[in-house]
């Protein structure tokens, strides 16, 4: 099993930020669309928050993408 690192959180946050910027919306607007506080979303984008599944889905829906788009940098590292 691989541990989640701070680098992983930062990569995820960067993906969220890139998708938000692609849409041309502010953090505040995206947070409103996702039903969360702007400071929480800012923490996600900075890699300070370990996002739970429900919040991942809420963010993805607010960005009009599938959760897989936000996770595409995290392919399985299985050694099977």
Ordered list of secondary-structure elements with their pairings:
Elements: H1 6-23, H2 27-34, H3 38-45, H4 53-63, H5 67-70
Helix pairs in contact: 2-3, 2-4
Descriptive tags:
434 Repressor (Amino-terminal Domain), 5 helices, mainly alpha, 61% helix, 80 residues
3D architecture notes:
The protein is mainly α. It has a single domain (6-70), classed as 434 Repressor (Amino-terminal Domain) (Orthogonal Bundle). It has 5 helices and no strands. Helix 2 packs across helix 4. The longest helix is centred in the first third of the chain and has 18 residues, at 6-23. It is globular and about 35 Å long. The mean pLDDT is 92.
Going by CATH, the architecture would be Orthogonal Bundle
Helix content: 55-70%
Strand/helix succession: HHHHH
How many discrete structural domains? 1
Question: Any idea what the CATH superfamily is called?
Answer: lambda repressor-like DNA-binding domains
Rg calc: 12 Å
Cα-to-Cα separation, first versus last residue: 12 Å
Poorly predicted residue ranges: none
The first-level CATH class is given as Mainly Alpha
Q: Based on Cα principal axes, name the global outline.
A: globular
Number of discrete helical segments:
5
CATH topology: 434 Repressor (Amino-terminal Domain)
Taking all residues together, what is the mean pLDDT?
Answer: 92
Largest sheet features: none
């Amino acid at each position: 099993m691989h541990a989640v690192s701070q680098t992983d959180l930062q990569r995820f946050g960067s993906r969220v930020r890139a998708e938000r910027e692609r849409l041309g919306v502010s953090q505040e607007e995206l947070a409103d669309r996702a039903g969360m506080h702007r400071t929480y979303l800012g923490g996600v984008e900075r890699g300070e928050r370990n996002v739970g599944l429900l919040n991942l889905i809420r963010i993805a829906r607010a960005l009009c993408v599938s959760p897989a788009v936000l996770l595409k940098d995290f392919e399985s590292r299985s050694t099977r």
